[in-house]
Amino acid sequence: MEEKGIKEMCRKKIVSIIIPFYNEGEVIRDFVIQLFAVIEDLAFTCEVIFINDGSDDDSEEIVKSCRSDHPELKIVSFTRNFGHQYALWAGIEAAEGDAIIMMDADLQHPPSLIPTLIERWLNGSMVVQTVRKDKHVLLFKKMTSKIFYILLNMISSYKFIPSSADFRLIDRRVVNELLRLQESDIFLRGLIFWLGFETSFVEFDVEKRGAGKSKYSFPKMIRFAVSGVVSFSLLPLRITAIFGLIISVLSFFVAIDSVYAKLFLSDLSPGWTSLMVGVFFIGGLSMIFLGIIGEYLGRIVLEVKNRPKFVIKESVGFEAKDIDLKCNE
Known about the structure:
Elements: H1 2-12, E1 14-21, H2 28-39, E2 45-52, H3 59-65, E3 74-78, H4 84-94, E4 99-102, H5 114-122, E5 127-132, H6 139-155, E6 164-171, H7 172-180, H8 188-195, E7 199-204, H9 218-232, H10 235-264, H11 272-305, E8 312-316, H12 322-328
Parallel strand pairs: 1-2, 1-4, 2-3, 5-7
Antiparallel strand pairs: 3-8, 4-6, 5-6
Helix pairs in contact: 10-11
């Protein structure tokens, strides 16, 4: 019984840290230094997995060079840039820990917060979600983020916390449930909330980037927002149906008025302006609604194709089985 308890304690001391990166060569060495300065003081076995999301700078070479000081460091490299959410998913699939921490490599997610996340997990939280205070976030990004979460909460049956970051800890049970989901269009913030596990929240100040610039361009933010809306709400489709019904009813009354005017009013004017306004209004709405429907149909096409979420070019460090070796000592 005592031996079983010792093995269980050893097993419980495994924490996997997943760090996706894309062209972070200017800052990633400093991140590695700060990260290991924190985790070396933890009473846990830590598995560190970097996910190279198709970087075309020297980021990957820098991370590999860090393995001389930290041979337990692991790297998964994609063949191209598949996107941040898919990089996180690759890390989730590769991780072996009882808890997984996801964070970015730009130093805006402070490694110093890791002990706090672990403490919340040990106190029973299945998900420990960080929330940005947005101290150093640009006003434009801050406002668009707030608008996005307001709209998402309005149209979705799930309540999302504004300023939630992809810096979080999730328990192994949450990981196992996530991996059961087969959808290819990933919106991790939504999926983790959707699972419904007990969640605690930790606020943190977003620091300025250590170097370089954000890889989340405005078009990427738009795609990310659309993915969140389409993945977790059918309300846009229902709105198109409601508008279609309203327009049909109005058109019926307009038709009755037109017939009455034709039969009983002799001084009927052509009404060119009102006709053109009506045509362009209905035509514009139709194009918008077709676009919304097309967005949903496009997601269905992607799901039916069932392509892999990403393609791995190289994996480094996984052959060592570091965690198993330490627990068997």
